[in-house]
Amino acid sequence: MTNSTILTGITTTGTPHLGNYVGAIRPAIEASKDATAKPFYFLADYHALIKCSDPEKVRQSSLEIAATWLALGLDTKNATFYRQSDIPEIMELTWMLTCVTAKGLMNRAHAYKASVAENEANANTDPDKGITMGLFSYPILMAADMLIFNANKVPVGKDQIQHIEMARDIASRFNHIYGEHFALPKAITNDNAATLLGLDGRKMSKSYNNTIPLFAPEKKLKKLINKIKTNSLEPGEPKDPTDCTLFSTYQAFATESEVEAIRQQYANGIAWGEMKKILFEKINTHITPARERYDALMQDPKHIEMQLQEGAEKARTISAPFLLKLRQAVGIQKII
Ligand code: TRP
């Protein structure tokens, strides 16, 4: 198997924020334009059920994430953009993989272990309290996401590397029993992609509640940028750009020479209020055209749905025949 298929999933919980954009979405959209890559990007809506049992939230998040990717110019001719739940073969493969996955392998998954550790820290008598089979088996669903399209390059955050390794284990086991059906996926972590800091100076993350929504309306964007934490140095006092949230955020949106000019202004003692104004202008100018497309798309959900349907159709030309082959390989087939 010498293909080079890039694939990544986005769990449909929450609203995309600037950190998601800079760290994952922007590089993925760039890659979508590379005709030699043919990437697969999908809304991981069945993954959302692991963390979220509010149907309205899952629905709304799927819509917002799809609109976001389309508004940012995802090349849907080159990339295959679909919703996981539109590809029934993924769920079917999940069961086949479940039957070759060692329980001990799942016992070692970080997400599961962290939940157990939390229960133990809280002196719960049951270490598995509140842990669903969804959370426990989630690496198997993720393996099916990748293996159904024989993905071999999977761009992810560092927290996901273990899951890709587990997928390799599971795929090897299946190949060993039933013959060489799967390519082994490899995690690609982009060390050049910036990690944005949030309003409080920690990593920008939904779980810290310190995010700036990517398409926040102009006024809201300004308000949030004004909330970014700084130290108490006065205007005129020289400032250090290292470990400064305003500076590193600016860096994620500006050219090198613009960054150098701001570095000089820090040395000259720029006021924090002034820097916040500059940062707002920079981000707002960058985001405005996409925000306008986003707002228009959100008014036209039919168009979004159509794009997803087209993507699913394209994806299923691969997944449907492949699953038939896999069914045969395991002995699930018509008698004659
Ligand atoms: N679990 C991933 C995350 O939380 C999302 C995801 C689901 C994914 N399936 C995938 C990523 C397959 C890469 C490949 O970020």
Can you walk through the features of this model?
Helix 2 packs antiparallel against helix 7 and helix 4 (88-98) packs across helix 7. With 336 residues, the chain is mainly alpha-helical. It is built from 13 helices and 5 strands. The protein folds into 2 domains: 4-194 and 301-330, 3-Layer(aba) Sandwich (Rossmann fold); 215-296, Tyrosyl-Transfer RNA Synthetase. The longest helix is centred in the C-terminal third of the chain and has 30 residues, at 301-330. The radius of gyration is 22 Å and the shape is globular. The protein binds tryptophan (TRP). Residues 7-9, 11, 44, 47, 142, 145-146, 154, 156, 160 line the site of tryptophan.
Distance between the termini: 31 Å
Tell me the fraction of residues in β-strands, as a range: 5-15%
Which homologous superfamily in CATH is the superfamily of the largest domain? HUPs
As residue ranges, the low-confidence spans are: none
Query: Helical stretch count?
Result: 13
* Quaternary status: single chain
The biggest sheet, with number of strands, parallel, antiparallel or mixed sense and barrel status, is: 3 strands, parallel
Class of the largest domain in CATH?
Alpha Beta
Summed over residues and divided by their number, the pLDDT gives a mean of 95
The set of bound ligands, ions and cofactors reads: tryptophan
Radius of gyration: 22 Å
User: What is the overall shape?
Assistant: globular
CATH architecture call of the largest domain: 3-Layer(aba) Sandwich
Q: Which fold name is given in CATH as the topology of the largest domain?
A: Rossmann fold
Structure classification: mainly alpha
How are the strands of the biggest sheet laid out side by side? Answer: 1-2-3
Number of domains: 2
Query: From N to C, what is the helix and strand string?
Result: EHEHHEHHHHEHEHHHHH
